[in-house]
Amino acid sequence: MTAQPYATLNNGSNMPLLGLGVYDMYGKEAETAITDALEMGYRLIDTAAAYDNEKEVGNAIRSSAVPRHEIFVTTKVANAQQGYDSTLKAFDESLHRLDIDYVDLYLVHWPIKGKRKQTWQALEKLYSDKQVRAIGVSNYLLPFLQELEDYASITPAVNQLELSPFLFLKDEYQYCQKRQIQLQSYSPLARGKKFHNPTLLAIANKYGKSPAQIMIRWSLEHRISTIPKSASRKRLQENFDVFDFTIDESDMATLDSLHEDFRVVENPMQML
Ligand code: NDP
Description:
Blueprint lengths: L5 E3 L5 E3 L3 E2 L5 H14 L3 E3 L7 H10 L8 E6 L6 H15 L6 E4 L7 H13 L6 E4 L3 H10 L6 E5 L7 H9 L3 E5 L11 H10 L3 H11 L3 E2 L6 H8 L8 H8 L16
Parallel strand pairs: 3-4, 4-5, 5-6, 6-7, 7-8, 8-9, 9-10
Antiparallel strand pairs: 1-2
Helix pairs in contact: 1-2, 1-9, 3-4, 7-8
Bound molecules: NADPH dihydro-nicotinamide-adenine-dinucleotide phosphate.
NADPH dihydro-nicotinamide-adenine-dinucleotide phosphate binds next to α9.
């Protein structure tokens, strides 16, 4: 296995390209999965206030043998807490629940109507006060990114979007590349709903890998960070076993062509 790849963010911090998403895991199950993941070599954990497991994320990190500085922790401000003062308060509450010294990346979870500017300004304040190492957005499709240019003094370090071969958002991909905003794909496995796609299966067979591994590798080949979720030890291992192969250009083009606007989470455009 070769070393896992990292991205250098636009503020100079380093972030692993592959991480663990912890949506929909709770209590002991979440703590065990995160502990296992850290043992296996995962170094990025993606949580959110809305996932109701920041406490478990913190517990697993504090009890792990992996030094804190080697772990990259992302959390996000919940929709109901957006706004300037309420975001500052939400951040304090997240930090308290996590009970770790600092957060590596704080994201605006969704582009909420009427709240976007104030929420972003609160994130800029947290960043300027050195309370967080990097700030970014999530679910910011092109119109939200363009709007953000009007009020942002700091360019987001990361934009976390739903992305997979079945939802390849080329406009956002190009925009983020040009502005040095690191893209990160959520629901990168499309929650398993496309594992039976014949083209995906044929490529998986060709490389001797699973459909999940091909979907993860597709993100990495595009230098898109990715955060597949699993609460199973076996699948955590499988999803991390993606550093010993590459997908060639023609198979990447085939995977890119699977795009069909397929979403498992709601379309952020409804927030406009
Ligand atoms: P994923 O596409 O990561 O799919 C997760 C599902 O696939 C789970 O049911 C998991 O089950 C299953 N699975 C995982 N690995 C495998 C495998 N190798 N083979 C077969 N099945 C597998 O979906 P998510 O929506 O969870 O997205 C990942 C992360 O992205 C979230 O956990 C969260 O951190 C983030 N996210 C962010 C959003 C945002 O608005 N910013 C929105 C949605 C997600 P099992 O656990 O049993 O393995």
